[in-house]
Amino acid sequence: MNNTTTPVKEELASLLEHLPNDATIEDVQYHLYTIDKVRKGLESIEQDGGLTHEDVEQKLSRWLVN
Predict the structure, then answer these.
(1) Domain around 24
(2) Measuring CA to CA, which of 9, 21, 23, 36 is 20 to 30 A from 55?
(3) CA 19 vs CA 3, 11, 14, 48, 55: distances in Å
(4) Number of folded domains in the chain?
(5) pLDDT by residue for the chain (66 residues), tens digit each?
(6) Can you give the pTM of this predicted structure?
């Protein structure tokens, strides 16, 4: 584990601390899913590099309105 990684228990404690008292299991699952996807996306950018603004514009050009 590298120094920038927060231990899972700490992340869970922080998540539970910030959720409202009436949060459901589904709320917790959604937030865990979102955290996981963001982490994987950041790791992917670190490993493979990301796209430039121009690359994104080119890939999405058929949907963008000038």
Answers:
(1) 8-60
(2) 36
(3) 26, 12, 9, 33, 37
(4) 1
(5) 445 667 889 989 999 999 999 999 999 999 999 999 999 999 999 999 988 999 988 889 888 776
(6) 0.66
